[in-house]
Write a structure and sequence with these properties.
Number of strands of chain A: 2
Radius of gyration of chain A: 16 Å
Oligomer: heterodimer
Strand order of the largest sheet of chain B: 3-4-7-6-5-14
Structural class of chain B: alpha+beta
Number of helices of chain A: 6
Radius of gyration of chain B: 33 Å
Strand order of the largest sheet of chain A: 1-2
Distance between the termini of chain A: 32 Å
Order of helices and strands of chain B: HHEEHHEEEEEEEEEEEEHHHHHHHHHH
Distance between the termini of chain B: 78 Å
Largest sheet of chain A: 2 strands, antiparallel
Shape of chain B: globular
Chain lengths: 174, 484
């Protein structure tokens, strides 16, 4: 697979925006699917749709503050459905949202290759932050299953390539 | 152009780092939210030791160094003042203290005698005493800052071995108990907080109650019935029943007594705490309370009252019984029909001649030792302890036993009483050491019982508390020295 990452100036990058319905509805739908579908199809837990949506919105908007706020909101809502403490996913998604939007300013993340690599990296980063927070704040210590982690990162990266193409249709030119 | 320079700098700073600042703010908010939910165990090695919310740990940990520094600075200046300016006072104070030490030394000798006596008596009744075996000195570094929460913070935490529910005291009296423990500090709930409670005894009337705090920061004793008589000025001490505060430690003094408005059946007894709770600076945290029976000097095993009686009473001569006489002295069948039992108090006293059974088979014969049944109406053990008083000269024998040996002798020569008293000793439900003497009186006029009838009574029934265990002989003393 050839990956094309092109450096662009800020003027060359398209900045997109989304309607309110899309901005609210898509994250909610992603969380709903994430919560609901694995009850029927257990293997779907490997995907992290809210994270992918966070990355997509952050990259598309290319503005760090909306990116991190979107990440925080999606992450905390995601936490609300777990039995874990509220804020673990929130903090991880906030950082991912901030970095993704910052990255979107500097790199062309419109092509599938860069999207694949970006999602792969952000998924690993998300898991790392989550584990660190668990160890430092909550006091849990879970050993990394590196094999499973890599498979999950690859799966999410592949899904992101497909998903982002679909979500691109909801973009509006800013 | 008209803006002041600081504003230009601030605006350029916030404009330049806006994104990063917002990120930090959002992360901070979420971490705070997380910290309000997460609870961390006070002692990571013991998961069931209780836990504290992370936000509280952080807040206290952040505030502790500042409070420490402030208190430390204050102490530094105050100590400097005391050391260099008040030297003259200290010289005079030193002289006074020397005199006080001399006085206390004399008093200590007397108290030592009392303590020895108390220990002996406690050992006799198998009293399990609790005393403070380890304390940690701590300095008060902060308060809750609210009248609704009467807590203080001390500068010792889990690293110093502090745990929740440990008693916090001063030499004047109890202060409170440890409520929350942090690594370097602890939160102490004072006894005048409305959520606190401590088991107390009114020293004079011996009434028990629960000491509680009020919203106003006063301390009252609950649970004392309205018909009890309690006077202002009476001292209140800890009962030890709450298993937090050491027993017998000063709590305060009754200032007023009135019927409880809410429940008329009880009294509302206001107490002025012995420790000045508004000016507590240094406290002791009781980190270990030991519980053990007092050990008599030179004691090898469990000592029975009768053993001590036999060993230490010079006034009670040994029995001069010959083997043949012993058989005669016992009621028929006593030694032959029954298997030998371990010596009980009553049986042991037979050897010393204190038991009235000696000559139960021979109504007319005087006991060889000259000791006989107890004088009617006298209580050898209980009466003796009061008669002996706390300042009996050390003779090696407990004072109560001294008199015990003496009183049965008084009537020893009276003929015709032996068999009767022998049977009365074993009267069911009576404490042999007391009962033996008291029962002698009414039955003294009865004719001697036939040997076969008196036999079952001659041997105290198994399980008689006084014969197998000297516990009921003497009630445990109410007070003890908690700081021993």
């Amino acid at each position: 697979m050839s990956v094309a990452i092109t450096y662009t100036s800020r003027e060359e990058i398209d900045v997109h925006k989304f309607s309110l319905g899309v901005s609210v509805g898509i994250p909610l739908l992603a969380i709903f699917i994430q919560v609901f579908l694995p009850t029927r199809l257990r293997f779907l837990t490997i995907f992290d749709l809210p994270l992918l949506v966070t990355i997509f919105f952050a990259v598309a908007r290319r503005r760090p503050i909306p990116g991190l706020i979107t990440g925080a909101a999606i992450g905390m809502l995601q936490d609300a459905f777990t039995h874990h403490f509220i804020g673990l996913n929130g903090i991880a998604n906030t950082i991912v949202g901030y970095l993704a939007s910052s990255l979107g300013v500097r790199l062309d993340v419109e092509n599938p290759g860069s999207r694949f690599l970006m999602t792969f990296g952000f998924y690993l980063l998300h898991q790392l932050i989550y584990a660190l927070l668990g160890a430092l704040l909550v006091g849990t210590s879970e050993a990394f299953n590196w094999g499973h982690l890599l498979v999950a990162a690859l799966s999410n990266a592949l899904l992101a390539v497909v998903l982002f193409v679909g979500l691109d249709r909801l973009k509006m030119q800013a | 152009l008209c803006l002041p320079p600081w504003r230009i700098i601030m605006e350029s700073f916030f404009g330049r780092y806006k994104n990063a600042l917002v990120l930090i703010l959002v992360l901070f908010i979420q971490i705070v939210i997380l910290a309000t939910q997460v609870k961390r165990a006070d002692n990571p090695k013991a998961p069931n030791s209780g836990s504290t919310r992370l936000i509280r740990v952080w807040a206290v940990t952040a505030a502790t160094p500042i409070e420490r520094a402030l208190v430390g600075t204050g102490h530094f200046f105050r100590n400097t003042w005391h050391n260099y300016v008040n030297l003259t006072q200290i010289r005079r104070q030193n002289q006074e203290l020397q005199e006080q030490v001399a006085r206390l030394k004399i008093e200590q000798v007397r108290l030592k005698e009392d303590a020895e006596q108390a220990r002996r008596l406690q050992a006799l009744v198998g009293f399990q005493e609790k005393f403070i075996s380890q304390t940690v000195a701590a300095q008060v570094i902060g308060t809750s800052g609210s009248d609704l929460s009467r807590v203080i913070y001390i500068d010792k935490g889990s690293r110093a071995g502090i745990k929740t529910d440990m008693a916090v005291i001063t030499p004047d009296g109890i202060v409170g108990k440890v409520k929350e423990v942090f690594p370097l500090s602890s939160q102490v709930l004072m006894i005048n907080d409305r959520d606190s409670g401590a088991g107390v005894i009114l020293e004079k009337s011996r009434l028990q109650g629960v000491l509680r705090g009020t919203v106003q920061g006063e301390t009252i004793v609950d649970g004392v019935m309205a018909d009890e008589k309690v006077e202002a000025g009476e001292r209140v001490i800890s009962s030890g029943g709450d298993r937090i505060y050491p027993k017998g430690f000063p709590v305060g003094m009754v200032t007023s007594v009135a019927p409880d408005r809410e429940s008329g059946a009880f009294l509302a007894i206001k107490v002025k705490p012995a420790a000045d709770l508004n000016r507590v600076e240094e406290v002791l945290v009781v980190t270990r309370m030991a519980e053990q029976a007092p050990v008599l000097a030179g004691e090898q095993g469990r000592v029975r009252a009768a053993d001590i009686l036999a060993q230490r009473l010079p006034s009670v001569p040994k029995t001069e019984q010959k083997p043949g006489q012993a058989g005669q002295g016992d009621a028929p069948g006593t030694s032959a029909d029954q298997p030998k039992k371990p010596k009980t108090a009553a049986q042991t006293s037979t050897t010393t001649g204190a038991s009235p059974n000696d000559n139960s088979g021979e109504p007319g014969k005087k006991p060889a030792s000259g000791s006989g049944p107890a004088e009617p109406g006298k209580k050898p053990f209980t009466g003796a302890s009061t008669a002996a008083g706390p300042r009996v000269k050390k003779t090696g024998a407990p004072p109560d036993q001294k008199t015990t040996g003496a009183s049965p002798n008084a009537d020893s020569g009276a003929p015709g009483k032996k068999s009767d008293t022998g049977s009365s000793t074993a009267e069911p439900g009576k404490k042999p050491l007391n009962g033996a003497s008291t029962a002698a009186k009414p039955k003294a006029k009865k004719p001697a019982a036939p040997p076969d009838q008196s036999q079952p009574e001659a041997t105290p029934p198994p399980g008689n508390p006084a014969t197998e265990n000297p516990k009921p002989v003497q009630p445990p003393p109410d007070r003890e020295n908690p700081l021993r």
